[in-house]
Automatic annotation (TrEMBL):
Assigned GO CC terms: membrane
Signal peptide: none
Gene3D superfamilies found in the cross-reference section: MFS general substrate transporter like domains
MF annotations from Gene Ontology: transmembrane transporter activity
Transmembrane segments: 54-76, 144-164, 176-194, 200-220, 232-254, 260-279, 358-378, 384-405, 412-432
Location(s) in or outside the cell: Membrane
Location of the Major facilitator superfamily (MFS) profile domain: 52-523
Full protein name: MFS domain-containing protein
PANTHER family: SOLUTE CARRIER FAMILY 22 MEMBER
Membrane topology according to the record: Multi-pass membrane protein
PROSITE patterns: MFS
Keywords: Membrane, Transmembrane, Transmembrane helix
Source organism: Enterobius vermicularis (Human pinworm)
InterPro entries according to UniProt: MFS_dom, MFS_sugar_transport-like, MFS_trans_sf
Amino acid sequence: MKKESLVGCKTDQNLAMECSANNSVENLDAEEVMRAFGKYGKYQASFLKMIAHFLINLTAFFHSAEVLVMSFIAVAPDFACHIEQSSVSVESKYIELNKCTMVDQNNQSYACKDIPNATYSFNESTRYSTLNSEFDLVCRDEHWAQHASSIYMFGGMIVTPFLTQLSDLYGRKYTFLVPLWLSVAANLACAVAPTYGLFLFFRLLAGTGMTGSATIGWVLCCESVAIGFRSLIPFVVTFTWVLGIMMVGVLRMWFKSWRLLYFAISIPGLITIFYYWWIPESLHWMVNQKKHAQIQKYIKKASKINNVQISLANCKANANGSTEKTTRTLLDMIRNKQILYHLTVHCFLTFNQVSSRLYFRIVMNIAYWGLALLSTQLSEDSYTGYFLSGFCEIPAGLLAVALMVKFGRRTITFWSLFLQGASMGLAILYPGPGKIEMIFPIAAKLFNSITWASQPILLAEMSPTSIRNTFYGVVQFFGESGSVLAPYLGLLAEINPVAPQTAIAVLSVISAILSLTSPETKDKPMPEDFDQFDPGFLFSHKKKQRAVKDARSETKLQKEKEVSNLQ
């Protein structure tokens, strides 16, 4: 016999079968349905496992691998300019000035590529170990190798807001799967691209698909688990992100050819073909869009797996809820001053976080070697710093989960941003000698990683279902713009050596203060539409005034109706 759910939806043993057969799915509260099946219900657990090991692994695991692989394949090996001459007398006309430039007998300098029969000779154990050696991306063309990273981020930055809008209109599942499959196909094409121009084109498509699917996948994951489980999601993301970093390093030890390495990190993506059958639609979106047939199918499957019947009558939203589906666009967000304000705040926060995170990675990778944090033996190993830069994010992920179980999202976001800024400020004031110089920057990176765990959860939980992906997509747009601009933070050092650190410190403190204006979302149901949106303390008085006004209007209408009935 099937058990009765005692959480969320209150069930009556005598009415269990009636509940399962006759209860209407109209005007359901998705959070109440989730709560009814339990925090660790079998359906929730199996879905989370699928999301954690397949969906999130793909969007975090493969995302990090696709980004970090460039640190191995976009580096020029040692090389020299080699002139193939049939006559020694002709060859003696040129003297090597440096690796890129030759000088003739008239003291006229020539770029290596401008000399007839001249080629670059690369010192590498395996032919074409990097993009640079296969496509001659050295000297004046070396900057083209870095474009493969920026164009990947640029593709995601431009397309993600449009994909997320489609996700709010047409559902999470297919707007997650199509970009995902595009990314898998584009990455496989990158591994066999015959020219560098085609490689850049496929990298653009890969970034477009992966960033878009990662954004939609994150929201889908948050919408598919009970409230109490959301605090655990960031650690799964952190773990899979780091696992992707580790995979690239390990595979590089085996595959010295850049094509084999890229193919090796891309081929597992073919498993996503089966996601068509494995990934269900978001219950929150189905409820918001009044997809009654799909909701019934979802509940039937969940009831069967959990061996429990729930009373849908006790899973209803407010009695006055709309029976029409809610369709919102970016224009609706812009017209709503409260949502527009919070959208602007979180765009600023995410821009600051992305630029800070990438800047920390750049600075700390240099510092690992320059400040002798590692022993001489380890420093000779070119992989050690790469692995350490990934492993150091695991403690932050564990700490973030522990904090989010105990404290609110807004509280953690504020303190981690504030302490990030304070740590960078202390790094400027107390640089210290040797290893001490790295203490405060490492602390700043730790707090940065904690913010990356709390702020996305806050963002997903505070935004209404009708615009959640659009909201998140616009924020992601500004986040990706931060990733594009992050390498240029170093240019501020030309103004003052500590200018980059100062900029991060100031922006972090400003972000911390602005984060306090966000609503607290811990243990609260996610809003379905604008009327359920919590605007935070800055606008709370307006919400109360509107509620009082609506109550008075309702009372007035009721009195008028009573008078009309008496007459």
